[in-house]
Amino acid sequence: MFSVVGQEFVKESFKRAFENKRISHSYILTGPDGTGKSIFALYMASSLLCRGEEKPCRKCSSCIKIKNNNHPDVKIISGETKSIGVENVRNIIDEIYTKPYEGDRKIVIIKKVDNITVQGQNAILKTLEEPPEDTTIIMLAENLNSILPTIQSRCQILRFARTSGDSIKNFLRKQNYDEDKIKTAVNFSDGIVGRALKFFDENYLKLRLETIDIARRLPKSRPGELMELTDFFVKNKDKINDILDILSIWYRDIIIIKHSRDKELVINADFYELLVEESRLVSYNKLSRIIDTIKETREKLKQNSNYQLTIEVMVLNIQEV
After folding, report:
1. Which site among 98, 134, 236, 251 is 20 to 30 Å from 308 CA-CA?
2. CATH of residue 299
3. Closest listed residue to residue 316, CA positions, set 295, 298, 291, 290
4. What local confidence, expressed as pLDDT, does residue 141 receive?
5. Residue 118 is part of which domain span?
């Protein structure tokens, strides 16, 4: 329950504040997606609302309700839309000022707070300046730089870092995963536990295979294949971040093989022979430009550009490099 791999500094910081009764009215948990921010936010909520002696006890009615995502005094706001405007923020503020139902404290967890527009952040600023005494606000963000300095200065910031490969490996072994898959998952993780866990999800593995097929076809494709290739990205719009990660890692591996052929440095080690074959077909310069194109595509999508047009431009650019 609420097990976060690594992040010892974050755990210790919150533990000290909790034991010394120096809990902030608002927090920002920041770091790469998949490093445990959401799980730790629930751990914080459980600690603050626990009715047992050793907090969180994981046994009281409050802890169990939080585990089951049905505690009336823990409100989770997903923030999945790319841009959260003023109207959405007003709804969040209303939620913050709603009184607790069961106890004397309420927890509001706002995910992807870095998606809130500048106008929306300014709207929430007054609430952070004069927060209700019975509410703790926990905001989650991947990119701290997207959050106004005036908001940052009013929050306790907990920074989530990448986790060591050994820590991830030990965690996966405790889950009794296959040892061969564990090695590839750790390589694939880039220090992010959530990414390593994806490697044991059948749907993700299927997406990986499909994306690798696209990765092999893209540099050799013709203009007439644009619609077919673009359709894959459109069909999987909700998985685009995973797809771009898989593409980037694939082309990165080919560069590694062209340089040294050291299998230990290859992330997609289970496709080593295929990568060697691909490395003979594409030049360094072309691979470098493809990776830059993928990076530019990721940035444009973060800026709310037209999805289909952005993908079509990416496919065309890769065809033409």
Report:
1. 251
2. 1.20.272
3. 290
4. 93
5. 8-159
